[in-house]
Amino acid sequence: MNAPQLLTPAQDIPDTLARILADKYEEVRERSAATPLAEMERAARHAPKPRDFVRALCNAVGEGRVGLIAEIKRASPSGGLIRDPFEPAALAEAYCAGEATCLSVLTDAPYFQGTPEHLKAARAACDLPILRKDFMVHPWQVHEARAMGADCILLILAALTDAQAGELEDVARSLDMAVLAEVHDRAELDRALGLETRLIGVNNRNLRTLRTDLATAEELVPLIPADRIPVAESGLRTPEDVRRMAAAGSRCILVGEHLLRQPDVAEASRQLVHAL
């Protein structure tokens, strides 16, 4: 595997993200040395057929529901430990009962206490399409995502050059996986629209301060062309928040921390799904 290179300072990566990426590059170097790319490619080819992530969201919206991507994560840099005890399979079942459309599962260990086993457990527990939520920087990780059962990957435009994002998307498409391209500002949105994917995630969280502001999605979602599917991410807690995002043009949302902190995860999910 060619050693991934950190982006140049001209990319102006926020300090928190730069630190995470430095750790991620080292992690990928170590893990790909233990499991070579050719071996991971074979594992990906033998994985169960991908579930259609995009179609699931389109069907939900077409039926008048919110396309909810419900997240499974134990912790986060901004929220600390979110749920304990943490049972990915039970959470997947609860989200399914709560009419979530898709799942998002964190697999990053240092910052989110995630593992590939969390995704595997969630996939075995329900039939919803699953996004692997991680910091994707190398094709090896895309094959790994498919091998563990992921149906979609996240590409964070703030963490990638255009060439990197295009390469990772090409690998995902070759594996019949969906791609969620995540943006935080107008410049990143313009770059994301250069990709093939229809899924454009607008993250309301500021990567410098880690604070959330729904006005970010209200500014960017109306700029997304009609042939793309906007997904509002971060800071969504109430049905009113969901309606606010829908008014901006996003009927698909990704919600994690709020749902995970609720005693009745299924009911909390249902409230967001039927907010409109």
From TrEMBL:
Limits of the Indole-3-glycerol phosphate synthase domain: 17-272
Reactions that this protein is recorded to catalyse: 1-(2-carboxyphenylamino)-1-deoxy-D-ribulose 5-phosphate + H(+) = (1S,2R)-1-C-(indol-3-yl)glycerol 3-phosphate + CO2 + H2O
EC number(s) from the headed UniProt entry: 4.1.1.48
Leading EC class: lyase
Pathway: Amino-acid biosynthesis; L-tryptophan biosynthesis; L-tryptophan from chorismate: step 4/5
Keyword annotations of the record: Amino-acid biosynthesis, Aromatic amino acid biosynthesis, Decarboxylase, Lyase, Tryptophan biosynthesis
Gene3D superfamilies: Aldolase class I (3.20.20.70)
PROSITE patterns on file: IGPS
Coiled coil region boundaries: none
Family: Belongs to the TrpC family.
HAMAP family given in the database record: IGPS_B
Protein name according to UniProt: Indole-3-glycerol phosphate synthase
Organism this protein belongs to: Paracraurococcus ruber
Classification lineage: Bacteria, Pseudomonadati, Pseudomonadota, Alphaproteobacteria, Acetobacterales
